[in-house]
Specification:
The complex is a heterodimer of chains A (296) and B (121). Helix content of chain A is 34%, strand content 18%. Chain A is an alpha/beta fold and 296 residues long. With 121 residues, chain B is an alpha+beta fold. The two termini of chain B are 18 Å apart. Classes of the chains: A alpha/beta (296), B alpha+beta (121). The interface between A and B is medium-sized, with 24 and 24 residues.
Chain lengths: 296, 121
């Protein structure tokens, strides 16, 4: 029997050092494809594996260089030296600047940045404060104002398993129609999260990241904004996504039926049908004519 | 429909594995009726209507009949589809000592969704 070797996925993963705010961070980054850079930001308490389906979709990677990285303290990006002496807490300014530093370090030319959940929030901040650095932002399950609905102190205490409860907290954010295989894979990402990391991310998501008083200042003629939100998302609800859309003049909103808070990982095939028109829009603007390959 | 919970839960190997350290009694309110569920190592040993005023559970979750019925549909409507969603949207209430609930959150979500008879949590 001949052995032809493994059939590798097209995703390439590598590490590099990112010196950010005076500290070295060993960053893990994955990418696939070529074309317009499409930087993908994972949700709170998880990592960049959520975007694996996108990176294996040739209809997308024929036109886009899809790049996803693990934030420091997440996935395979280690916390910085000295982490044991501090409590992790994500804040708006640091998060924004980290994404910008990543794009600069990767020498990306006018990338599209797409984030989900807390990633969906930060891309809106980027559109407001740094519109000329990004071709377009895509906010998945992102809003300018959110309302906490559970006590995050349960997420990091010695008598409760942090991974199990993080997964338990977010399990209801997945639509009942989403395939079990992808539901449990999405939850696995949460089960592997470091201690206190989901809680620390939620500081940005639920406390520090509100800016509904300023989001109307986003200039979508300089940085187009797309919002996509799942019906079964009970944090960035369709109502909150709609309110954000109404404040950001010129933004485009898609409400995704039978979808929850993790579109790219909980139901990648359904998500593709919603993302493709957005990616086509961006390509149309670049090429000034409709591409045929991405069309369904 | 809650009467189907015991058999559905006890025939779900994934649920039982997740709850193998759970032994307690909980109270589930379905409309005006309170039910006591006795759990032993994840198995539902008994599910009975509360008859004595001082019978209780370590924690209590209550919702109207119709809300539970919708929760137990194969594809429930938004906000009815998940215990946390029911709590956050005001469709259900929870009281008592929540420690064991939080320590075994996925198990309890699966247990109370068991009449749905899917792997969903």
């Amino acid at each position: 029997m001949s052995n032809l070797g493994p059939v590798f996925e097209p995703i390439i993963g590598r590490y590099f050092n990112l010196n950010f705010e005076g500290r070295d961070h060993r960053i893990y980054v994955e990418e696939a494809g070529s074309g317009i850079p499409l930087v993908c930001l994972h949700t709170a308490g998880s990592d960049a594996r959520q975007f694996r389906h996108l990176m294996c979709d040739a209809k997308i990677t024929d036109h886009y260089r899809v790049i996803a990285f693990d934030l420091p303290w997440h996935g395979k990006s280690n916390p910085p030296k000295g982490w044991e002496a501090e409590e992790y807490q994500l804040e708006t300014k640091g998060y924004k600047n980290l994404v910008r530093a990543f794009c600069q370090a990767m020498a990306l030319d006018n990338p599209v940045v797409m984030g989900c959940s807390m990633g969906g929030r930060v891309v809106l901040h980027l559109a407001l404060d740094h519109p000329d650095e990004f071709r377009t932002v895509i906010a998945l399950e992102g809003a300018d104002r959110l309302q906490p609905y559970y006590d995050t102190s349960w997420l990091n205490r010695p008598d409760v398993h942090g991974g199990e409860i993080s997964a338990g907290y977010v399990s209801g954010q997945i639509a009942p129609q989403s395939p079990d295989e992808y539901r449990w894979e999405t939850l696995w990402g949460y089960m592997q999260s470091g201690p206190g990391i989901f809680k620390g991310d939620l500081y940005f998501y639920w406390q520090d990241g509100h800016f509904d008083d300023r989001s109307a200042n986003i200039d979508t003629s300089r940085c187009p904004v797309y919002l996509l939100s799942g019906v079964y998302d009970n944090s960035c609800t369709p109502e909150r996504a709609t309110a954000t859309h109404e404040r950001i003049i010129g933004s485009k909103l898609t409400i995704m039926k039978e979808m929850g808070h993790f579109p790219m990982s909980e139901n990648p095939n359904l998500f593709r049908t919603h993302l493709t028109p957005v990616l086509n829009d961006i390509l149309d603007k670049k090429l000034n004519n409709p591409p045929s390959i991405l069309k369904e | 429909m809650i009467n189907t919970l015991q058999a559905a839960a006890n025939s779900n190997a994934t649920l039982l594995r997740r709850g193998h350290q759970v032994t307690c009694e909980i109270l589930i309110g379905v409309g005006l009726n309170d039910f006591i569920i006795s759990l032993e190592k994840g198995h539902v040993k008994n599910l009975r209507l509360r008859t004595l005023p001082l019978e209780s559970g370590i924690f209590a979750i209550r919702a109207d009949d119709g809300i539970w019925v919708e929760h137990w549909q194969e594809f429930p409507k938004r906000n009815y589809h998940d215990l946390f969603s029911m709590l956050s949207s005001g469709l259900a209430t929870i009281d008592g000592d929540l420690t064991i609930f939080m320590q075994n959150l996925i198990y309890f979500k699966m247990l109370l969704a068991a009449p749905r008879n899917r792997m969903e949590v």
